[in-house]
Amino acid sequence: MSEVATLTERLVSIPSHDDETAAGDAIVDWLRDETDAEVERDAVGNVIAYRRGTGSDTDESAPDVTADGDRPLFALVGHHDVVPPAARQTTGEETEGAYVVERREGRIYGRGSADMKGAVAACLLAFRDASVPAGRDLAVASFVGEETGGEGARHAIDEGFVPDYALVAEGSTNYSKPGVTDVAVAHKGRRASTLVVTGASAHASEPAAGENAIYRACDAVEVVRDLDAPATTVVGETVTGSVVVTEFHGGDAWNVIPDRCTVTIDERTVPDVRADLSQAADRAGVEWVVEQDLPPMGCSDDAFAAAALEATRAVHDERGLDAPAHVVKPHATDAGWLAAAGTACVVSGPSEPGEAHTETESVSIDVLERCQAAYTRLAETTW
User: How many CA atoms lie within 13 A of 138 on its CB side?
Assistant: First the structure.
């Protein structure tokens, strides 16, 4: 019986799309039953546990093992909130009732199996089993609110949780090729913004009497079209973003010069480089409003990135699998918030493209076991 599969099923069975409390309780209970670690539950529901490296003259469960200590801290990071389930993924009406969990053909099906309770289970087991090197501490963190903009991660950071290194266990499987779990050294962020354009209304028969907000908006859109996509290099990997107009709304009558128009912009950001959208706001009547800014991630420590890949590659070698690679992940994760706070991050986990947030969401048990072994090996590695 696969221990990581059993723990995954336990976590997946607990609803956590609108209240993460019960899932957090299960993680706390498991940590206290299975480890002697110091376990913390903060005000918003994040669960963080600490172990001191072996070989220290201080007991592993010493209460002074924290993210702001004087020893390097490596953290395995996940989240236990999920998006709302599909009707078929619950036992009740719509999103009500217990979550349905199925194991078949080597996979576990259910809301949160891929994103990302399976990865949390792998992190927990690696945290328990790793022989942490002397002179370094180990943490495992499961955040709330990742699906709603990183609320849990931001709270933890504000409260002082800024490890020196972190592996965020979001999906990276089958990125470079089928059958491998890669190590992402960077991911894009997302900045969502709106150009709010104002003019002056008039009757359409006398256009010169007004100031057409749509024309002003079109001029601003031309500025956006001419902007270069942001790009950079992280640990030898090219990270290329984008900036595109995705919505355009203006006017409310066929015979009135519009006095207002809005333009929605989706920008995929990269580490340390942004498109200069403020240029669009230099036009008359144009205001640029940023509504969401999920930060990108770029690993700031080449040695850590190399160690993460080597640990993952060794596990693949033992299983006769093709070698993984350093890759770039297209989606934002909590690694962006940690990296912005100063943590050297990589992303590596069992979820495959196209699994998260679907009504047939699932995760491979073989890949869960592979990730558990890679996380354990990395936690035991020095770099």
Answer: 31
Identify the structural domains of the chain with CATH numbers, from first to last: 3-187+296-379 (3.40.630.10), 189-294 (3.30.70.360)
Q: What angle, 0 to 180 degrees and rounded to 10, lies between the N-to-C axes of helices 118-129 and 21-34?
A: 20
The residue type found at 290 is V
286: left (phi over 0), alpha (psi -120 to 50) or beta: beta
Tokens standing for residue 179: 């059958």
Q: How far apart are CA 338 and CA 166, in angstroms?
A: 8
Residue 42's SS3 state is: coil
Phi, psi of 23 (to 5 degrees): -65, -40
Please report the beta strands in the chain, taking only residues with DSSP state E, as ranges in sequence order.
38-41, 47-52, 73-79, 102-104, 107-109, 137-143, 165-168, 183-187, 189-198, 202-203, 231-234, 237-240, 242-250, 256-257, 260-269, 286-294, 297-298, 326-329, 344-347, 362-364
Neighbours of 251 (CB within 10 A): 16
Closest Cα partner for 83 from 7, 168, 162, 147?
147
DSSP letters of 118-164?
Answer: HHHHHHHHHHHH--PPTT-EEEEEEES-GGGTSHHHHHHHHTT---S
Please state whether 160 falls in left (phi above 0), alpha (psi between -120 and 50) or beta: left
Angstrom distance (rounded) from CA 87 to CA 118: 21
Terminal Cα-to-Cα distance of the chain (whole angstroms): 34
DSSP string, 347-376: E--SPPTTTTTSTT-EEEHHHHHHHHHHHH
Q: Which amino acid is at 193?
A: S
Burial 308-322 (b: 16+ CB within 10 A, else e): bbebbbebbeeeeee
DSSP state of 253: -
Mean pLDDT per block of 10 residues along the chain (383 residues) reads: 95 96 98 97 98 61 57 97 94 84 96 97 98 96 96 98 98 97 98 97 95 97 96 96 97 96 97 95 96 97 98 98 97 97 98 95 98 98 92
CB 61 within 8 A of CB 36: yes
Of 52, 215, 31, 29, nearest to 130 (Cα)?
52
